[in-house]
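Operator note (shift B, R.M.): manual run for Exocyst complex component 8 requested after the automated queue skipped it. Running by hand, logging everything below so the morning shift can see what happened. Input copied straight from the record, untouched. If output looks odd, do not overwrite the archive copy; leave it for review.
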Amino acid sequence: MAMAMAMSDSGASRLRRQLESGGFEARLYVKQLSQQSDGDRDLQEHRQRIQALAEETAQNLKRNVYQNYRQFIETAREISYLESEMYQLSHLLTEQKSSLESIPLTLLPAAAAAGAAAASGGEEGVGGAGGRDHLRGQAGFFSTPGGASRDGSGPGEEGKQRTLTTLLEKVEGCRHLLETPGQYLVYNGDLVEYDADHMAQLQRVHGFLMNDCLLVATWLPQRRGMYRYNALYSLDGLAVVNVKDNPPMKDMFKLLMFPESRIFQAENAKIKREWLEVLEETKRALSEKRRREQEEAAAPRGPPQVTSKATNPFEDDEEEEPAVPEVEEENVDLSMEWIQELPEDLDVCIAQRDFEGAVDLLDKLNHYLEDKPSPPPVKELRAKVEERVRQLTEVLVFELSPDRSLRGGPKATRRAVSQLIRLGQCTKACELFLRNRAAAVHTAIRQLRIEGATLLYIHKLCHVFFTSLLETAREFEIDFAGTDSGCYSAFVVWARSAMGMFVDAFSKQVFDSKESLSTAAECVKVAKEHCQQLGDIGLDLTFIIHALLVKDIQGALHSYKEIIIEATKHRNSEEMWRRMNLMTPEALGKLKEEMKSCGVSNFEQYTGDDCWVNLSYTVVAFTKQTMGFLEEALKLYFPELHMVLLESLVEIILVAVQHVDYSLRCEQDPEKKAFIRQNASFLYETVLPVVEKRFEEGVGKPAKQLQDLRNASRLIRVNPESTTSVV
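Run finished. Output pasted below as returned.
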């Protein structure tokens, strides 16, 4: 036993070495093995040895992985620690490099300032009001000291322009800035830009604050002291927001420019405070300058009127009256602080998505200027405000666009819709609201999972669609209450379009998949019940769903009618005119119940002894199939389908009646002929009255065609010399 085990182990070792060898070829190995084996048994044993070796190898591999798993985890943790330390080291090196690079830049403006002061023979120094334009620590370099004056005359203006030219020569791609007259540098310095959403460091930048705009340039690492143009922002549309320190994120401030915002970090708290102060002062100075220019531009209009009156003694008194409103035009007070800061406040509200606050400011301004004239300053203010209104409208339109998230239902659109209505954009608000809801309904229908059972899917589809429609109607009533009635017409048009979307999905699942008539009837019934729920809010779309489904229902009725006719013709071709033998009382009882459910209450008189039925199998099957068709068709019925259903019934009945009529003409056996007459009597006196009564109950009015069909003793006259019948 031990010897056999030792031989087995040695064989396994030899096999393992053979399989692990570098020159192993599977095809040659199998060929040699087939030649050396004595039969199927040897091959089976060898196969078992290879399989056992494979399982052993797999177990060893799994064991090694488990043994090294803890080492893998520890190694990954060490790598993560090392990566964090390397990132911190890189950040420290970057800060040291920026500090070293800023040293030569701080020396250049000081030397230029000293030379300019010596050349001008004692111009104003760097103290007092001019301190804003001289070197501030390591924040960068500024205009010449003489540039602190604001009169724009003499060497000071040339010094400002010369300094601006010198600095902007270091920025690639901004030569066009030099074409603006009267532009000069106020402040500049190094900043670090961070991502506004994730607060991740993006890049190092350099900011150049001019007297009317802010230029942002990025560093060129490979070229010391040089920058590349990044962006230019007008101070009119720029808002500055202080960002509260939240270590390690500190010394930051945010610039708001619709529709974007950027966050910058200063070197320290002092430089951050200087940036905030100088930005506010420059914006205030620019606003004051523009206001003075407006006043100066408006002032000269008065004297020509006075001169005309003084030099023309023959002017009538009537011509003096128009001069009064012009004098009144000049007396609109726009010096209030909230009016001066209104454009900036609107920019801040738009950037912070405070739509209500923005519209409140606009309402306040409109109320203030409601009965005021419109001199040029007012027109200019209105032009600035109109630009903000356009921006606000664009943001609100984007809020309602289908590209935005559709979650939250109709209530999520109320905020944007209400503000658009307050802005006088009622029609646009209505259009965007309905477009948004159409996209939401379409998305909800597309995301609906198609189940195997059609009726289950239709229940879910109706619930999703009609619930969305009901919520949309209620929200529409809230949002657009008191607005133009044309919006309600637009909603009805939209509801019809949405119903078309629903019917497309409904028909594709119910009618295109060739479901049975009973399934289609149940699905249509469910849709009608859900549609009637809209009546609670005064919205009746039943006629629309009827109009959209009539074509598909007609096709279903026609298709099922053809199936019944073909089945009836097939049974007629095999008709032997024999009584039915149901063999067991249970089968007979079941048939009686079926005929009773079809409306045939006197079926007992057609049953015989034991389990016999004195009717033909063909006539009984036709009765059950016809009544089943009628019941399902009545579930689908609405007035547009009246003639389609009636004609289908007449065609089906004619097939059976024609067959009975033809058999009476051709049958020669007296017993069979009597049996045929009994079946004909059942058709005329029992089945047709039941069909006529049930049709009248379901439709609400009698059908003359069915009455004529029942009253006729023979429906088709057959040529006595012929042995065939036209069907």
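Quick read of the result: The longest helix spans residues 40-119. The CA atoms of residues 354 and 541 lie 39 Å apart.
Leaving this for review. - R.M.
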